[in-house]
Design brief:
With 624 residues, the protein is mostly helical. It has 2 domains: 432 residues, no CATH class; 160 residues, Tetratricopeptide repeat domain (Serine Threonine Protein Phosphatase 5, Tetratricopeptide repeat, Alpha Horseshoe). It contains 27 helices and no strands.
Length: 624
């Protein structure tokens, strides 16, 4: 993809995009629960606002034509349907605040897609500027990751026991691996840049491979294999230049040798690379998929509501999950680790079809560009983009890049590059209707999503800030501070934290601990309305009813909790106590007998002798 004239390279839009991408990995706020997700949405919103205002200025001064006829392309129709289904799914949502958040995120990403496509079509944004910015983006990401690798290599237990800490600035090790993968087309585009950029890109690709291997992210490893195989196949099939074919063969040989070396080393060091051979995470994924498919079967038309998978998956039970912490509700999930099941379960069949259509259309556009493009450097770019998109699909099946702003920014840039290229090269021979939009129409169409995203992002950031303090107070049993922070955290855009726990559940715990049972019950009721299958919410609400003397409601809610997780010992012990209190000793004994004999809950050793004694007396006819 050749560079445009110098005036475009040094243009205002190039500088805006360069700065935005360069600083994106540095956006990090440690005082909230998830230090990157919401701050980066606010950052993207600010950038899009600046971009829109700059664009409006150029349009007003007639330096640009307001021709948005490219919006008639099918890819934008697919995006519009997806946004519509997110909005329609509100009717099914239990936690509306989560649906509001998802709509705000998708909306700002859609505006970013439209503006970037327009600027690429009008040649006011240069692909090579984007490539330089993302090369530096990857450089920053890898530097932070290397520092973390060195830091945890020196700690007790060694690096391989602390791999979950190698996240760079991405919040999760899998997300670190996938963002390095998505950056590949831009790194390889350095072939069109000066030598220093080429050298840096080669080093960064090598470091990326080593990091992914160390972190042991299997989905991204598979994506890299797909990338190299597709690239090699296309090079051998389409490149007419013999030197290009020789380079492709060399690349495949090097990649094959590296893969073989890494595989042999991993097999010989299974103790260090246990995550590559561990099946527990796969069983866990299968359990998540099972719950998601049950959800889809029950809500295939409209889904359960955008952002509400995290609330609804509990309905289908935790008994088949392999890890006890999951069954006990100590470890929660916010998404099914499969973006396609995630979209289907939340937005229904039409939302799923639109999301799949987005990728299908972009892949079709990319294939057509590879066929029609005569310039070898430009064709190579489209080949690497196609290989990346196919690899990304494998990642999306096992992880959750859809959730993350930085992943969607890079993916959207790829979408925009392909869409702009298709519009310019493959639609050139067709009669195109010019669609001119007034500046006021553009301002409304752009500013509304931007302001909406700002409003939601700031409110959620405020909620997370106070939730962060709330959790710290909970750990210290500081009940009064918990109540104060919970009241500050809740707003129209924020009702549950990133661990899918309603904020007012914490307030209920604090009030219960202070002996204010009626108010605790009221807060647990609200938490229950937001998360009706959360076993801790059910358990605590049941305890309120029991304390207030409503034994039947207490039994009903304890049984609901046990329907979700049959082995939850706290609910089993509490339910056995209720049965004991109402002198149903047989049921009390049968319930407590479901606890494991190795139960460490102090109540087990207290309750069991009393229940056994009461049951024996009942059987022998002795009065209590």
């Amino acid at each position: 993809m050749s560079a445009p004239p110098n005036h475009a390279i040094s243009g205002i839009f190039d500088r805006l995009y360069f700065c935005f991408i360069l600083f994106l990995p540095l956006v990090y706020v440690s005082s909230i629960i998830d230090p990157v997700l919401i701050p980066r949405q606010i950052y993207l919103s600010a950038f899009v606002l600046i971009l829109a205002l700059t664009l409006a200025y150029h349009l007003k001064n007639e330096k640009l034509k307001p021709d948005f006829s490219f919006l008639k392309l099918p890819v934008f129709a697919a995006y519009a349907v997806l946004l519509l289904m997110v909005l329609v799914s509100f009717a099914q949502a239990i936690a509306i605040s989560e649906s509001i958040y998802v709509l705000s995120k998708y909306s700002i990403e859609a505006v970013f897609f439209v503006l970037t496509t327009y600027l690429l079509i009008t040649e006011k944004l240069n692909f090579l500027t984007l490539a330089k910015a993302i090369i530096l983006f990857v450089f920053i990401t890898e530097i932070v990751a290397i520092v973390q690798v060195l830091k945890y290599s020196q700690k007790e237990g060694g690096l391989f026991n602390q791999l979950h800490e190698i996240t760079s600035t991405n919040g999760n090790k899998n997300l670190l691996s996938s963002i390095l993968f998505i950056g590949l087309p831009f790194l390889l585009a350095s072939a069109q840049l000066p030598k220093v950029w080429k050298t840096l890109s080669v080093i960064l690709i090598g470091v990326a491979l080593v990091l992914v291997w160390i972190i042991q992210t299997r989905a991204v490893m598979l994506a890299f294999i797909v990338f190299f195989v597709v690239n090699f196949g296309l090079s051998m099939l389409l490149q007419k230049n013999n030197s290009s074919k020789i380079s492709a063969r060399t690349l495949l040989l090097v990649a094959s040798l590296l893969l073989a070396s890494f595989s042999i080393f991993a097999v010989l060091n299974k103790d260090k690379f246990s995550r590559l051979f561990n099946v527990t995470s796969l069983v866990e994924r299968m359990a998540l998929y099972q719950n998601s498919l049950e959800m889809i079967r029950e809500h295939y038309v409209l889904g359960v509501g955008a952002g509400n998978w995290q609330v609804s998956y509990l309905k289908y039970g935790l008994n088949h999950f392999p890890i006890k912490e999951v069954r006990d509700g100590l470890t929660t999930f916010q998404r099914p680790h499969n973006d396609f099941l995630w979209v289907f379960s939340e937005t229904g069949m039409a939302g799923f079809a639109a999301y799949v259509a987005l990728f299908a259309i972009i892949i079709f556009y990319t294939v057509r560009l590879i066929q029609k493009t005569k310039s070898q450097p430009e064709r190579s770019v489209y080949m690497t983009i196609l290989a990346t998109l196919l690899g990304y699909l494998f990642i999306a099946v096992f992880d959750f890049p859809l959730e993350r702003i930085e992943h969607q920014v890079l993916l959207t840039l790829l979408f925009a590059i392909v869409t702009a290229g298709y519009y310019k090269h493959c639609m050139a021979s067709q009669q195109r209707d010019t669609t001119s939009l007034s500046i006021s129409t553009l301002q409304i169409g752009i500013l509304l999503p931007v302001l909406f995203s700002f409003f939601v992002g700031i409110n959620r950031c405020r909620g997370e800030y106070h939730s962060h303090k709330l959790i710290a107070a909970h750990q210290k049993a500081n009940w009064k501070v918990m109540i104060k922070e919970a009241d500050k955290a809740v707003n129209e855009c924020y009702s549950m934290n990133p661990m899918s726990i309603p904020v007012l559940w914490y307030k209920g715990v604090a009030l219960f601990s202070l002996g204010n049972i009626p108010e605790a019950q009221a807060n647990f009721e609200i938490a229950y309305s937001l998360s009706p299958y959360n076993i801790h919410v059910l358990n605590n609400l049941a305890s309120c009813y029991e304390t207030l003397g409503d034994h039947q409601k207490a039994i009903a809610f304890y049984q609901k909790a046990l329907t979700v997780s049959a082995g939850m010992e706290e609910s089993l012990l509490n339910l056995s106590a209720v049965y004991f209190n109402i002198k149903h000793y047989k049921l009390a004994f049968e319930t407590i007998n479901r606890c494991d004999t190795s139960c460490t809950d102090p109540k087990y050793k207290t309750f069991l002798p009393a229940i056994v004694r009461a049951r024996k007396n009942e059987l022998s006819g002795t009065k209590q």
